[in-house]
UniProtKB/TrEMBL annotation:
Annotated EC: 5.4.3.8
Modified positions (N6-(pyridoxal phosphate)lysine) in chain numbering: K271
Originating organism: Aminipila terrae
Catalysed reaction equations from the record: (S)-4-amino-5-oxopentanoate = 5-aminolevulinate
Domain of life: Bacteria
Protein's UniProt name: Glutamate-1-semialdehyde 2,1-aminomutase
Subcellular location: Cytoplasm
Protein family according to the UniProt entry: Belongs to the class-III pyridoxal-phosphate-dependent aminotransferase family. HemL subfamily.
Single biological process term from Gene Ontology: protoporphyrinogen IX biosynthetic process
Gene from which this protein is expressed: hemL
Classification of source organism: Bacteria, Bacillati, Bacillota, Clostridia, Peptostreptococcales
Pathway assignment: Porphyrin-containing compound metabolism; protoporphyrin-IX biosynthesis; 5-aminolevulinate from L-glutamyl-tRNA(Glu): step 2/2
Keyword Transferase: no
Main localization of the protein described in the UniProt heading: cytoplasm
Length: 431
């Protein structure tokens, strides 16, 4: 049965647009890049998600990463239910925050200290402020096509929904002054990084990177690239920051830094660290983190930071991940099956497509590739992606509603869903 009944979603979308810009609280949800009605979601359970018209989908978004254990994981749910009985927020210190801090410091190689915030955006913004406070320098290097949230200085050549929105990567409302300290290098291109260091050597506070890029679609770092970044930062006494909002606790319990064996000075997390509650975190070397108020002079605060309910959900999810390596084995095996299967399909169909993947995240690009950076990702045929997306959605697979995003597999997925998705993809490619 096709999932093409969308009357209620359409009605809700029309109503939503009267009161909310574009009808959504985050641009990618508007499905602008794929030219179809955004589905209004009613509930999600395990590997499935259900819309307002009663359509059921295999969920390959998982709230853009947090739902690594599957939607509505019983353990996480129970932790939330138990915690809310004692109050939703105190704006004061709690023991749970220590449990969370200890847990992530054990799991994440670069963490000696951590500060909890409420989103990935806050985490990266605060990490950069801290790096600037620590070094006394003003400039930062980011990479074209990497997205680090929507703070002013990071909306420069950013990825994610900004790419899909018609090519101009910069946002209106970001002043030249805010953007002038953001230097951009090319992903996987050390020459471009070296040139910036030659020009601005003593002025670069930090290099921030998605260790596996996931906001220009999934793009893997070339062999040795992260290590070379580590070296150039060491030489220049620049703070290396891995933005692990997508890769953290997903590619390995200790994130990409554990997987690739390269330890940054700082790292940022979001989404997954809160099990679905609004949470982010930044942390790193003690010497750097002790620059943060009230110990140091870098100001950063948050009324709801370390919120008890969010901490309870996050602690439960991360403990689960830490204690059950079989979760990684499961999602990575399914990743191999799904992305390997898609690669096989496009090869058989002789389609001009490339599949990039690592573990449970991946992207099918509608370009012959290889896709190694922002420029090669942008060669994708977006109209074809839109058609593919619509076909898959109508057949019950809920993919990322834009080419330049990742797909996510959870521990609740099984081979059955992967097989169905692959069968439907094969039909799209006429094989
Ligand atoms: N960094 C990365 C790598 C991300 O993918 C995102 C969100 N997709 C962010 C930062 C921003 O996180 P948030 O949406 O929670 O502010």
């Amino acid at each position: 049965m096709l999932n093409s009944k969308t009357d209620k979603s359409e009605r809700l979308f029309t109503e939503a647009k009267k009161y909310i810009p574009g009808g959504v609280n985050s641009p990618a949800r508007a499905f602008q890049a794929v030219g179809t009605t955004p589905r209004f979601i009613e509930k999600a359970d395990a590997q499935f998600i259900y819309d307002a018209d009663g359509n059921k989908y295999i969920d390959y978004i998982g709230s853009w990463g947090p739902m690594i254990l599957g939607n509505n994981n019983p353990g996480v749910l129970k932790a939330v239910q138990e915690t809310i009985l004692n109050g939703l927020s105190f704006g004061a210190a709690t023991e749970r925050e220590i449990t969370m801090a200890k847990l992530v410091c054990e799991m994440v190689p670069c963490f000696e200290m951590v500060r909890m915030v409420n989103s990935g955006t806050e985490a990266t913004m605060s990490a950069l402020r801290t790096a600037r406070g620590y070094t006394g320098r003003s400039k930062i290097i980011k990479f074209e096509g990497c997205y680090h949230g929507h703070s002013d200085g990071l909306l420069v050549k950013a990825g994610s929904a900004l790419i899909a929105e018609g090519g101009s990567p910069d946002s209106a409302g970001v002043t030249e002054n805010c953007a002038k300290d953001t230097l951009t290098a090319k992903y996987n291109d050390m020459d471009s990084v070296e040139k910036l260091f030659q020009e601005y050597r003593d002025d670069i506070a930090a290099v921030i990177i998605e260790p596996v890029a996931a906001n220009m679609g999934v793009v893997l770092p070339k062999d040795g690239f992260l290590k070379q970044l580590r070296e150039i930062c060491d030489i220049n006494k620049t703070v290396l920051i891995f933005d692990e909002v997508i890769t953290g606790f997903r590619l390995a319990p200790g994130g990409a830094q554990e997987l690739f064996g390269v330890t940054p000075d700082m790292a940022t997390f979001g989404k997954i660290i809160g099990g679905g509650m609004p949470v982010g975190a930044y942390g790193g070397k003690r010497e750097i983190m002790e620059c943060v108020a009230p110990v140091g002079k870098v100001y950063q605060a948050g009324t709801l930071s370390g919120n008890p309910v969010a901490m309870a959900a996050g602690i439960m999810q991360l403990t689960n991940l830490k204690e059950n390596p079989d979760i990684y084995e499961h999602i990575n095996t399914l990743g191999e099956k799904l992305y390997g299967g898609l690669a096989e399909i496009v090869k058989t169909a002789k389609a001009d497509c490339t599949v990039n993947h690592i573990g449970s995240i991946g992207t099918l690009f509608f370009t012959g590739g290889p896709v190694t950076d922002y420029i090669s990702a942008r060669k994708s045929d977006l109209k074809q992606y839109a058609k593919y997306f619509q076909h898959m959605l109508n057949n019950g697979s809920y993919f990322a509603p834009a080419q330049f995003e990742a797909m996510f597999i959870s521990n609740a997925h099984t081979e059955l869903e992967i097989k169905k998705t692959l069968d439907d993809a094969a039909k799209f490619f006429n094989i």
